[in-house]
Amino acid sequence: MTSEQPSLLSYAAEQAARLSSYANIHPGSAMSLAELQGWKQRVFRFQQQVQQTAAPVQIGLFESAAIAAPSDSLDPFSLPPQNIEFWRWQFEDVGVAALYFVVDAELPILLYVGETMKSNQRWKGVHDCKRYLLNYVSLHNRLRLVHAVNIGFWCEAPGDSKARQQLERALIYQWRSPFNKENWQHWATPFVGEK
User: How do the domains of the chain map onto residue ranges?
Assistant: First the structure.
């Protein structure tokens, strides 16, 4: 005779917890140490070329000096790093329009580029990048590989949403950040799992 313990959760809540894409690590994140290191090295080498390449400048017809576009001069690795769990902190305001960059400073590699109108609230809700980071960090921990994941904010981003999103898109393609969906196929990004 087996008695089943009653659940404190409704059936719908149990299904949601079981199928949660944030909390469950997907099989796609199972890599060997050599595979993970090789993947990171490919990303690192590409991003090093981006960082070392002189930024092209835009010259206007009536301008005497050349002006670099923000996407050409912005170095995500030079931003002050913050704890990746920043969104759990209590803030007195909602923050400002910003671009943000998730970096593993150990190698270093830029993992994700994002934009927000409210820098102190962006990750408070559901954000797919949290799942990718959970998978990434969990794999590093399982393989006993050092990581130093942090986030940096560039608070000089345009206040206009369309202009900010265009700048974000330019940076995603420039750096080929592997956690941005635009670059999943290019890097065969293993940490994104299914929705």
Answer: 29-187
pTM: 0.74
Secondary structure (3-state) at 30:
coil
Q: What is the rounded radius of gyration, in angstroms, for the C-alpha atoms of the chain?
A: 20
Go through 155-176 and write b for each residue having 16 or more CB atoms within 10 A of its CB, e for each that does not: eebeeeeeebeebbebbbebbb
Q: Which two tokens stand for residue 10?
A: 């409704």
Single out the residue of 97, 89, 109 nearest to residue 36, CA to CA.
Answer: 109
Tens-digit pLDDT string for the chain (195 aa): 555 555 454 554 444 444 444 444 444 457 899 999 999 999 999 999 999 885 554 445 555 444 445 656 789 999 999 887 766 655 565 467 889 999 999 999 999 999 987 655 555 566 788 889 989 999 999 999 999 999 998 988 888 989 999 999 999 999 999 999 999 999 998 888 755
C-alpha distances in angstroms, 191 versus 45, 93, 112? 19, 32, 12
56-71 residues labelled b (16+ CB within 10 A) or e (exposed): eeeeeeeeeeeeeebb
Q: Assign 98 to helix, strand or coil.
A: strand
Cα 31-88-171 angle, rounded to 5 deg: 60
